[in-house]
Design a protein that fits this description.
Blueprint: H1 2-5, E1 8-9, E2 12-13, H2 14-47, H3 53-79, H4 85-122, H5 128-154, H6 160-176, H7 178-193, E3 201-204, E4 207-214, E5 218-223, E6 228-232, H8 233-237, E7 241-243, E8 250-258, H9 264-279, E9 284-294, E10 299-307, H10 312-332, H11 352-355
Antiparallel strand pairs: 1-2, 3-4, 3-7, 4-5, 5-6, 8-10, 9-10
Helix pairs in contact: 2-3, 3-4, 4-5, 9-10
Length: 356
């Protein structure tokens, strides 16, 4: 038996191979027990608390510690064997690549978790995932570039030339893609400053619609007519944007025009009539009503009321009810609305009023 264990195979004795295999088997069993006993209890404990750091701890253990333990023990088992310099170098490179990959995944997951947590605190409409996705693309590019440079440096290669090349290339790319970088920084401004969010109803210039997606370069808006408006982020941050979702109340001003032959005593009653009509409406607060102007063709009354709801449908329902009631009561009281008129000339040059 001892002679069999001393038999050499691929430069190592059978005993060395069995010892390395034993390390792998024991480590796998130990890691399995750790996952099903310790890690399972940690998950139950973190789920029962309202804190976030324990969730990040469990995620870190599951996504980083466990894979690294597998790779580390496998690397330890292989290290007990006598390998050629070339094979030993290949194993070391594979170990460093896998280790770097696990660490970068953990860093990316932690950043994503933190951003999701912050975004969910600021938004309650379920759009956190879509808001974070664009920023995570940029962060992942930066994380993986730095990770690859770190890996190359740890493998013994000089990264000075690479970093210098990236610096010169970065300047060239920045000069060639100024508009893209401008939109990218505008995306950061929109993400952190939150002038609007996904689902908000906004107006830009003469276009109105609902924000559907905020991307790295463009923002997509579904207009009231149904088509999709695609705006660059730079245009949005440089424009005046009306955000109607953050509207709490609506201040409505409307004008009623009556004819000049309306009796003065009736004119004095009009503000009270309209006030009673407005006071009957739910979610409405009457502000004022006055005779505002003596126009060249009408007497103008100006009324102001506040709709105590940001809902556009509520506003339209209130406006409809007020206008219909005004028309009905004015007809009952024989109060005539004024409309623009102007004299016109007949064929012989006299006005229509002179002919009459």
């Amino acid at each position: 038996m001892e002679q069999f264990l001393q038999y050499t195979f691929w430069g190592n004795t059978i005993y060395s191979w069995l010892f390395a295999l034993g390390i792998v088997i024991v480590s796998v069993i130990g890691i399995k027990l750790f996952r099903y006993v310790v890690l399972k209890r940690l998950k139950t404990w973190s789920a029962s608390t309202s804190a976030t750091w324990d969730d990040l701890l469990v995620i870190g253990i599951e996504r980083l510690v466990v894979p690294i333990l597998y790779v580390g023990f496998l690397y330890l088992a292989i290290s007990t064997l006598h390998l050629s310099p070339k094979a030993d170098k290949v194993v070391h490179i594979i170990y460093m690549v896998v280790l770097t990959f696990c660490v970068l995944r953990l860093i990316s997951a932690v950043f994503r978790r933190l951003l999701m947590r912050v975004t969910r605190r600021r938004t309650d409409d379920g759009s956190a995932e879509q808001s974070v996705s664009g920023l995570m693309i940029v962060l992942n590019v930066v994380i993986w570039i730095l990770g690859i440079i770190f890996l190359i440096d740890n493998l013994g290669y000089s990264v000075t030339t690479l970093i210098t090349g990236l610096g010169i290339g970065g300047i060239a790319v920045a000069l060639a893609a100024q508009n893209i970088l401008g939109d990218l920084f505008s995306y950061f401004s929109i993400f952190f400053d939150k002038p609007f969010e996904i689902g908000d109803s906004i107006t830009i210039g003469d276009q109105s619609g609902t924000v559907e997606k905020i991307g790295i370069k463009t923002t997509r808006i579904r207009t009231l007519s149904g088509d999709q408006l695609v705006c660059s982020n730079s245009d949005l941050t440089n424009s005046r944007v009306n955000n109607f979702k953050r509207l709490e109340t609506r201040r409505i001003v409307f004008i009623l025009r009556v004819v000049y032959n309306t009796p003065p005593e009736v004119l004095e009653e009009i503000p009270g009539i309209v006030k009673k009509i407005i006071d009957k409406q739910p979610k409405v607060e009457y502000s004022r009503g006055h005779l505002a102007a003596l126009d060249h063709w009408s007497i103008n009354f100006e009324f102001v009321y506040i709709v105590l709801s940001p809902d556009y449908g509520v506003y339209m329902d209130v406006q409809h009810a007020i206008y219909m009631e005004v028309i009905r009561i004015f007809k009952e009281r024989s109060i005539c609305f004024a409309f623009p008129t102007q004299p016109f000339l007949t064929g012989d040059g006299d006005s229509a009023e002179d002919v009459a």
